[in-house]
Structure formats: C-alpha cells, structure tokens
Write a structure and sequence with these properties.
Elements lengths: L12 E2 L9 H7 L9 H18 L5 E5 L3 H12 L5 E6 L2 H12 L3 E6 L8 H8 L6 E5 L1 E2 L4 E2 L3 H9 L3 E5 L18 E3 L13 E5 L1 H8 L12 H9 L11 H17 L1 H21 L3 E2 L10 E5 L6 H12 L1 E2 L1 E2 L8 E5 L7 H16 L1
Parallel strand pairs: 1-13, 3-4, 3-5, 5-8, 8-9
Antiparallel strand pairs: 2-10, 6-7, 9-10, 11-12, 12-15, 14-15
Helix pairs in contact: 1-9, 2-9, 5-6, 10-12, 11-12
C-alpha cells in the first residue's frame, strides 16, 4: 500500500486575481490550538472580528460578520435573504460577476432586470436612472471592483438614484475591500459582501458581509423562508449577534483565527496608508508595463489599483507566457475571463502581494521573456 507524501507545494508569488500572498503572522495564527465554536474565548474572537470588519467597511451596522464560506456564498447570502419569489431586482452588469449576480437573482425566483455596459467600462448613473423609470425593483445590485475587467465603479451617484427610487443598494466589494476605500454608511450601501483572500490577505474561506437597518427590516418582513437553510440569516445572526449565542453550524475556527489576525494587520497599517500603498504600487506597475508596450483596458480614472487588467500585446501567446512566468519564475498572473479570454491578463497587487518587490519581479521577468 502506497503512502501519500507530505504536502510540500512550491512557494509561488501570487499576482493573479486572488488569492494573494498571506502574511506569516496569519499563517501562524492558523496553527493556534482549536477551541470550541461556542467557547467564551471564541465568542470574544467573533466579537473582535465583527468590530474590526465594521472599521474596514466604515459602518456602524450591527449585522456585520463573516459568512462561513467563500465570497460567492456572501453574494448568495445577500440576494437569498433580501429577495423573495416575484420580487424585481435590477442588476448592473459590466463583467463576469454581474453575470453571477444575475444568475442568483433568477435562482431566488425573482424577476431579473439587467443593465449592461461594455466590458472595460463602468455603469453610467444616467442609465441606471433611466432603467428605474420603467421598473420597480426591490434592490439594485452592482460590482464595485469588477475583477474580470479591472474597472473601478463609482458608487455614490448610483446609490442616491437607487434610494430615490425606493430600492435597496447591494454592492460586491470582493476585490475592493482593504485595497481602496469602501464607505458603507457614507455611500448608503444596504447590503455588501466581500472575500478574505484578496486585499485582506487571508486564505479563502470566509466572506465578510454587512447589512443596513433597512435591509434587516426587509429580512424580518419576509413572507417566505429563505431558500438556503445554511445561509438563512434569521438563524445565522443568532449565532453571531444574538444576546445568547445559538448554535447554527460549527464555525471554521482556524479560518476565523486567520481573519482576526489579517484584520488586525490591516488596521495596524492604517486604512489610508494601505490604500496609498496599493495606489503607489499600481502606478509603478502601470508605468513599467506601458513602457513595455502594454495597454490598460479601463480608462485611467476607472483603473483598479489592486487588479491591473491589460491587453496582451501582439505576438504574445497568452498561455505560453503565463506558463513560463509560473514555471521559470514562480509568478502567477491571471488570464482573461469571458469576453477577454485569451486577450487580457489580470495582474493582482493585493494586500501582501502589493509591494515594490512584487512589481519589480514581474517587470523583470516579463522583460526577460520578451527578449527571448
């Protein structure tokens, strides 16, 4: 009988669309001995995580916590708890993840109203206003940082238009949270979700979410059960924020340790300093790539600092170059998705992967490959 070898994968430099490199202190936190998921010490850790997430989301929302699953589960949590069969939902689509939102809306039994923009461009607020003149949605959903296109979506005007129409405002911040400013209260975001594996720089496996009082009121007035038992916040919230914590599921304790330490490091650095670091390294990478003949997909004012989407120059083979980066230099970057498959690269500078060393290593490797 053969015995499987001990795990020992090669160390990679993670510069794709996620996951990002993880700080050694976060990995160390994951080795902390387990305690029970209802142990008073673990409840205190949960409380700390909620408070740190409120600071990162810039919100006072009581219902702010981490779903025990990846960012896609955070997405489904928001839609499944706010939508009931027969509701209308307007989804703004300018990339892959707007398409995912649309799919979930229909799986909730709600009526989907799509508002599409060309890939590589943001949603125009005037188009949202026009769309709302001919429908009456319960919520309007949009992606803040579209990972498939590198587009940074301005939110303030669309939030105002949404609330003027009497709808809730739902936002995907999976790629943006921890890398650029996310102001849940100031921008009047009613439901928001993110992931741990990008600019927070924890392993994938948890999804930070936050719900406004208006969103909580909608949940409490539901006429039907949430279609997902596991993601039903009428039960989950009693575990996270109840006066007496009620068992719902066994939380991923080691992942919660990791998120606790990652959030501590984020706040220790300071949000403004962290955002400035991401911007500074993005500008250095952009200058280097453009000097080599690369062209960014979004207009400069809509470029994400943590997700650099660039067109592949003529004569470059997508799979071959990314394969060489991985095999010869241990550098991972991402290929294009959807409309940009085979036509674009997605280069991440997220969290612990946003350093001058990461920028210089990638630029040096690309120059060497181009010479050959």
């Amino acid at each position: 009988m053969s015995v499987t070898n001990e795990l020992n994968p090669n160390v990679k430099i993670l510069m794709g669309p996620g996951p990002s490199d993880v700080h050694p202190l976060v990995l160390k936190a994951m080795a902390t001995p387990l305690i029970g998921h209802l142990d008073p010490q673990f409840i205190e850790i949960m409380d700390n995580v909620m408070e740190m997430l409120r600071k990162l989301f810039r919100t006072k929302n009581q219902l702010t916590f981490a779903v025990s699953a990846t960012g896609s589960a955070g997405m489904e949590t928001c839609f499944a708890n706010l939508l009931e069969p027969g509701d209308e939902a307007l989804v703004c689509v300018h990339g892959v993840f707007g398409n995912r939102m649309s799919d979930i809306v229909e799986r909730c039994g709600a009526k989907l109203i799509r508002l599409d923009a060309p890939w590589g461009e943001p949603i125009d607020p005037s188009a949202v206003k026009k769309a709302l003149e001919s429908c009456n949605p319960k919520l309007v959903a949009i992606v803040h940082a579209e990972t498939s296109t590198g587009v940074r979506q301005p939110l303030e005007d669309i939030s105002q238009i949404t609330h003027d129409a009497g709808a809730l405002f739902l936002v995907d911040t999976v790629t943006s949270l921890g890398g650029i400013d996310v102001r849940v209260d100031d921008w009047e975001i009613d439901a928001v979700y993110s992931g741990t594996q990008k600019c927070i720089s924890a392993p994938p496996g948890l999804s930070p979410v936050s719900f406004s009082p208006a969103a909580v009121e909608v949940m409490e007035k539901r006429k039907t059960k949430v279609q997902s038992w596991y993601l039903d916040l009428s039960m989950v919230r009693k575990y996270w924020a109840g006066a007496k914590r009620a068992y719902h599921h066994t939380a991923p304790i080691s992942m919660m340790y990791a998120l606790h330490e990652a959030l501590r490091l984020v706040l220790e650095e300071g949000l403004e300093a962290r955002f400035a670091r991401h911007k500074r390294n993005h500008e250095l990478l952009r200058d280097g790539l453009e000097n080599m003949g690369f062209e960014y997909i979004p207009a400069p004012e809509f470029c994400l600092p943590m997700l650099n989407a660039v067109k592949i120059p003529h004569g470059f083979d997508d799979a071959e170059v990314r394969g060489r980066l991985l095999d010869e230099y241990n550098i991972e970057i991402g290929g294009g998705l959807g409309d940009f498959a085979g036509k674009a690269w997605r280069i991440g500078l997220m969290g612990c992967s946003s350093t001058l060393n990461h920028v210089n290593m990638l630029l040096s490797a690309l120059r060497h490959i181009m010479k050959k």
